[in-house]
Amino acid sequence: MKKMYYLSFLGLLFSASLYAQQVDFQEYDLSNGMHVVLHQDNSAPIVTTSVMYHVGAKDENPERTGFAHFFEHLLFEGTENIERGEWFKIVSSNGGTNNANTTQDRTYYYEVFPSNNLELGLWMESERLLHPVINQIGVDTQNEVVKEEKRLRYDNSPYGQWTGEVFKNLFKEHPYRWTTIGSLDHLDAASLEEFQAFNKKFYVPNNAVLVVAGDIEIEKTKELIEAYFGSIPRGEDIVREAIVEKPITSEIEVTFEDPNIQIPAVFTVYRTPAMTTRDTRVLDMISSILSDGKSSRLYKKLVDDEKKAMQVAAFNYSLEDYGAYIVLALPLGDNTLDDLVDEMNEEIVKLQTELISEKELQKLRNKFENQFVNANASVEGIANSLARYYMLYDDINLINTEIEIYESITKEEIRDVAKKYLNTNQRLVLDYLPKLEKEQN
């Protein structure tokens, strides 16, 4: 009886913890189409000002890939009122930090300031949108920066090219088939006018969401937002074509040689549905079952017990239109890539044919509850989530309710989703091999 009371008490505590994590927000539109989201949290004197633009690698001309990521760099060059090279100095000298990142679907910029610099953050983001200076010196400078990034993170990094090989073979029609960093040849060939046209098309208020989160006063913040963003002209409406891939009906086998590695790897990759679907959340849970932690099925079997792999992972790479479910392993000793694929297949078949235990299901729910709490543990994280849920999910309140989807997933759904997507005739198998030097005659 005491144990039952203790568990009930823990349940109450946990419910209170989740309730405390409730994120309150206000949202509205400016007359120019910019969506605004405000979250007030006066517990610490900091504020995050962020803007997410609905433009990513998938929005690029196939002959001009890399533009979205390039703009992530280019739009720190300066504006009509912020001299070239001064952006980061202004932020740091006012006690702030800032950054940006790009995916296949969106580009995100943000500043974190002491809350007495809220107006500065709003001014800087309005400057980026209204008065960017896109000239040849900026393009040339950032072209060199992007080239160095590609050399370091992709071309000369061990296993750095696997994403490119996976996506170009998993997708044949959809723009997900090229990498976010794109082609340097395309960037070299682009004219200044092409960069300016890209900015004019995508960097418009009606293609953006502005999030202000932290130590703010709502009405004062609304006044500042109207002052800095309200007069920015609306852009042309952006029309996106829905590109549908033909189903994969037989296994695709691909080999790639990487000169930067000594140990091969194998990737088995399955095309999956859009990030907004319930099935995608189930696939997240399947990833956790297979490789999240040392007690996960693949890690325990291949790394700990059988010692066939030095590393193994399974993860759901979900995107706005499609996704990729990826299982990978690096062999240990004399074990072959085929050995690893057989072992990975065996664990997936178990998920397709046997229900997980009640204990495993509860462990999964606990993990996802913990992730949910951690994602909203900081003002910076909340700002990112609010922007993402609005732009890519069209349901901003998922910041409070998505955990309920994960908690409602059943053992039967886990089995059925594994059976629906993770089949050998629906996948790509990439043998990622060391590039051997040719023997000298």
From TrEMBL:
Q: According to the UniProt entry, where is the signal peptide?
A: 1-20
Q: Which segments constitute the Peptidase M16 C-terminal domain?
A: 191-367
All copies of domain Peptidase M16 N-terminal, residue ranges: 36-149
Keywords attached to this Swiss-Prot or TrEMBL record, sorted alphabetically, are:
Hydrolase, Metalloprotease, Protease, Signal, Zinc
- Which InterPro entries does the annotation name? Metalloenz_LuxS/M16, Pept_M16_N, Peptidase_M16, Peptidase_M16_C
Pfam families in the record:
Peptidase_M16 (PF00675), Peptidase_M16_C (PF05193)
Would I find Lipoprotein among this entry's keywords? no
- Keyword Nucleotide-binding included in the entry's annotation: no
Lineage: superkingdom: Bacteria
The record's comment on protein family reads: Belongs to the peptidase M16 family.
In Swiss-Prot or TrEMBL terms, this protein is called M16 family metallopeptidase
Q: Which organism is it from?
A: Lutibacter holmesii
Taxonomic lineage from the root: Bacteria, Pseudomonadati, Bacteroidota, Flavobacteriia, Flavobacteriales
